TrEMBL record:
GO terms for cellular component: cytoplasm. It is found in: Cytoplasm. The keyword Cytoplasm applies. The keyword Lyase does not apply. PANTHER family: METHYLTRANSFERASE, RIBOSOMAL RNA LARGE SUBUNIT METHYLTRANSFERASE H. This is Ribosomal RNA large subunit methyltransferase H. One of its GO terms (molecular function) is rRNA (pseudouridine-N3-)-methyltransferase activity. It comes from Synechococcus lacustris str. Tous. Belongs to the RNA methyltransferase RlmH family. Its EC number is 2.1.1.177.
Amino acid sequence: MLNLSRIRIIAIGKQRPGWLHDGAAMYCKRLVGLEIIELKDSTPDKEAQAVLASLKNNEKLLLLSEDGKHFSSRQLANELNELSSNRLAFVIGGADGHSPQLKAKADQIISLSALTFPHELARLILLEQIYRASTIIQGGPYHRDAATAAGKALGAITSHQ
Ligand SMILES: C[S@@+](CC[C@H](N)C(=O)[O-])C[C@H]1O[C@@H](n2cnc3c(N)ncnc32)[C@H](O)[C@@H]1O
Protein backbone atom coordinates (compact mmCIF):
# COMPACT_ATOMS: atom_id res chain seq x y z
CA MET A 1 0.00 0.00 0.00
CA LEU A 2 1.38 3.42 -0.93
CA ASN A 3 1.45 5.89 1.95
CA LEU A 4 0.65 9.05 -0.02
CA SER A 5 1.50 11.32 2.88
CA ARG A 6 5.10 10.16 2.44
CA ILE A 7 5.17 11.09 -1.25
CA ARG A 8 5.99 14.57 -2.56
CA ILE A 9 6.37 16.05 -5.99
CA ILE A 10 8.95 18.80 -6.14
CA ALA A 11 8.36 20.79 -9.31
CA ILE A 12 10.56 23.46 -10.80
CA GLY A 13 8.25 26.21 -11.98
CA LYS A 14 4.60 26.91 -11.46
CA GLN A 15 1.64 25.26 -13.07
CA ARG A 16 -0.38 27.95 -14.82
CA PRO A 17 -4.18 27.95 -14.78
CA GLY A 18 -5.65 25.93 -17.65
CA TRP A 19 -6.50 22.37 -18.63
CA LEU A 20 -3.20 20.87 -17.38
CA HIS A 21 -3.80 22.52 -14.01
CA ASP A 22 -7.38 21.19 -13.95
CA GLY A 23 -6.21 17.68 -14.86
CA ALA A 24 -3.53 17.72 -12.18
CA ALA A 25 -6.08 18.98 -9.63
CA MET A 26 -8.37 16.05 -10.48
CA TYR A 27 -5.63 13.51 -9.70
CA CYS A 28 -4.57 15.42 -6.59
CA LYS A 29 -8.13 14.97 -5.27
CA ARG A 30 -7.71 11.21 -5.73
CA LEU A 31 -4.24 11.22 -4.16
CA VAL A 32 -5.14 12.54 -0.72
CA GLY A 33 -2.00 13.24 1.32
CA LEU A 34 0.38 13.68 -1.61
CA GLU A 35 2.10 17.06 -1.44
CA ILE A 36 3.32 19.18 -4.35
CA ILE A 37 5.84 21.93 -3.79
CA GLU A 38 6.92 24.35 -6.48
CA LEU A 39 10.41 25.84 -6.59
CA LYS A 40 11.43 28.91 -8.55
CA ASP A 41 12.93 28.23 -11.97
CA SER A 42 16.46 29.54 -12.56
CA THR A 43 19.53 27.63 -13.77
CA PRO A 44 19.82 23.84 -13.42
CA ASP A 45 22.64 24.30 -10.85
CA LYS A 46 20.62 26.70 -8.69
CA GLU A 47 17.51 24.56 -9.09
CA ALA A 48 19.56 21.54 -7.95
CA GLN A 49 20.67 23.41 -4.81
CA ALA A 50 17.06 24.35 -4.05
CA VAL A 51 15.90 20.75 -4.57
CA LEU A 52 18.62 19.33 -2.29
CA ALA A 53 17.85 21.97 0.36
CA SER A 54 14.17 21.07 0.31
CA LEU A 55 14.71 17.30 0.69
CA LYS A 56 13.64 15.78 4.00
CA ASN A 57 15.80 13.37 5.99
CA ASN A 58 15.95 9.94 4.37
CA GLU A 59 13.77 11.04 1.48
CA LYS A 60 14.54 9.12 -1.72
CA LEU A 61 15.35 11.37 -4.66
CA LEU A 62 13.45 10.22 -7.75
CA LEU A 63 14.22 12.43 -10.73
CA LEU A 64 11.96 12.58 -13.76
CA SER A 65 13.89 12.75 -17.00
CA GLU A 66 13.29 11.51 -20.52
CA ASP A 67 16.71 9.83 -20.49
CA GLY A 68 15.92 7.87 -17.32
CA LYS A 69 14.84 4.28 -16.82
CA HIS A 70 11.72 3.12 -18.65
CA PHE A 71 9.01 1.32 -16.68
CA SER A 72 5.71 -0.22 -17.59
CA SER A 73 2.93 0.95 -15.24
CA ARG A 74 3.09 -2.39 -13.41
CA GLN A 75 6.87 -2.15 -13.08
CA LEU A 76 6.54 1.39 -11.73
CA ALA A 77 3.90 0.20 -9.24
CA ASN A 78 6.28 -2.57 -8.09
CA GLU A 79 9.16 -0.11 -7.79
CA LEU A 80 7.06 2.31 -5.72
CA ASN A 81 5.73 -0.54 -3.59
CA GLU A 82 9.29 -1.68 -2.86
CA LEU A 83 10.30 1.87 -1.95
CA SER A 84 7.14 2.55 0.04
CA SER A 85 8.76 2.27 3.46
CA ASN A 86 10.69 5.45 2.55
CA ARG A 87 9.71 9.03 1.99
CA LEU A 88 9.74 9.67 -1.76
CA ALA A 89 10.36 12.93 -3.61
CA PHE A 90 9.68 12.94 -7.35
CA VAL A 91 11.45 15.89 -8.93
CA ILE A 92 10.31 17.47 -12.20
CA GLY A 93 12.91 19.73 -13.76
CA GLY A 94 12.65 23.10 -15.42
CA ALA A 95 13.12 24.13 -19.05
CA ASP A 96 16.75 22.94 -19.13
CA GLY A 97 16.23 19.74 -17.16
CA HIS A 98 18.31 18.53 -14.21
CA SER A 99 21.98 19.30 -13.63
CA PRO A 100 24.44 16.38 -13.95
CA GLN A 101 25.29 16.83 -10.24
CA LEU A 102 21.65 16.33 -9.23
CA LYS A 103 21.37 13.31 -11.53
CA ALA A 104 24.45 11.80 -9.85
CA LYS A 105 22.72 12.11 -6.45
CA ALA A 106 19.44 10.53 -7.59
CA ASP A 107 18.26 7.24 -6.13
CA GLN A 108 16.40 6.62 -9.37
CA ILE A 109 15.90 8.47 -12.66
CA ILE A 110 12.49 7.71 -14.13
CA SER A 111 11.51 8.25 -17.75
CA LEU A 112 7.84 8.62 -18.63
CA SER A 113 8.71 8.23 -22.32
CA ALA A 114 11.60 8.91 -24.66
CA LEU A 115 9.58 11.94 -25.81
CA THR A 116 10.16 15.31 -24.13
CA PHE A 117 7.12 16.87 -22.46
CA PRO A 118 6.65 20.35 -21.05
CA HIS A 119 7.06 20.22 -17.27
CA GLU A 120 3.34 20.84 -16.67
CA LEU A 121 2.37 17.88 -18.83
CA ALA A 122 5.05 15.71 -17.17
CA ARG A 123 3.44 16.61 -13.82
CA LEU A 124 0.00 15.55 -15.00
CA ILE A 125 1.31 12.24 -16.43
CA LEU A 126 3.29 11.55 -13.25
CA LEU A 127 0.22 12.16 -11.07
CA GLU A 128 -1.84 9.82 -13.23
CA GLN A 129 0.86 7.14 -13.01
CA ILE A 130 1.12 7.46 -9.22
CA TYR A 131 -2.67 7.10 -9.05
CA ARG A 132 -2.49 4.11 -11.41
CA ALA A 133 0.31 2.57 -9.31
CA SER A 134 -1.76 2.98 -6.14
CA THR A 135 -4.72 1.17 -7.74
CA ILE A 136 -2.45 -1.61 -9.08
CA ILE A 137 -0.99 -2.12 -5.59
CA GLN A 138 -4.52 -2.18 -4.08
CA GLY A 139 -5.72 -4.60 -6.78
CA GLY A 140 -8.34 -2.15 -8.08
CA PRO A 141 -9.90 -2.34 -11.56
CA TYR A 142 -8.57 1.02 -12.88
CA HIS A 143 -5.51 -0.48 -14.61
CA ARG A 144 -5.98 -2.94 -17.46
CA ASP A 145 -2.97 -4.57 -19.04
CA ALA A 146 -2.62 -4.31 -22.81
CA ALA A 147 -2.35 -8.11 -22.99
CA THR A 148 -5.60 -8.46 -21.05
CA ALA A 149 -7.42 -6.04 -23.34
CA ALA A 150 -5.99 -7.83 -26.42
CA GLY A 151 -7.00 -11.19 -24.97
CA LYS A 152 -10.55 -9.94 -24.42
CA ALA A 153 -10.72 -8.58 -27.96
CA LEU A 154 -9.46 -11.92 -29.32
CA GLY A 155 -12.00 -13.76 -27.17
CA ALA A 156 -14.80 -11.56 -28.56
CA ILE A 157 -13.68 -12.26 -32.12
CA THR A 158 -13.32 -16.02 -31.68
CA SER A 159 -16.69 -16.27 -29.86
CA HIS A 160 -18.34 -14.88 -33.02
CA GLN A 161 -16.74 -17.49 -35.29
C1 LIG B 1 10.85 20.62 -20.80
S1 LIG B 1 11.44 19.28 -19.88
C2 LIG B 1 13.20 19.57 -19.92
C3 LIG B 1 13.83 19.02 -21.15
C4 LIG B 1 15.31 19.11 -21.14
N1 LIG B 1 15.78 18.89 -22.48
C5 LIG B 1 16.03 18.10 -20.27
O1 LIG B 1 17.24 18.00 -20.46
O2 LIG B 1 15.47 17.46 -19.41
C6 LIG B 1 11.07 19.71 -18.22
C7 LIG B 1 11.02 18.55 -17.25
O3 LIG B 1 9.87 17.75 -17.53
C8 LIG B 1 10.14 16.40 -17.16
N2 LIG B 1 9.98 15.57 -18.35
C9 LIG B 1 9.72 15.96 -19.61
N3 LIG B 1 9.62 14.89 -20.42
C10 LIG B 1 9.81 13.80 -19.64
C11 LIG B 1 9.81 12.40 -19.89
N4 LIG B 1 9.59 11.90 -21.09
N5 LIG B 1 10.05 11.56 -18.86
C12 LIG B 1 10.27 12.06 -17.62
N6 LIG B 1 10.28 13.37 -17.33
C13 LIG B 1 10.04 14.23 -18.32
C14 LIG B 1 11.57 16.34 -16.66
O4 LIG B 1 11.58 16.39 -15.25
C15 LIG B 1 12.19 17.59 -17.28
O5 LIG B 1 13.28 18.04 -16.52
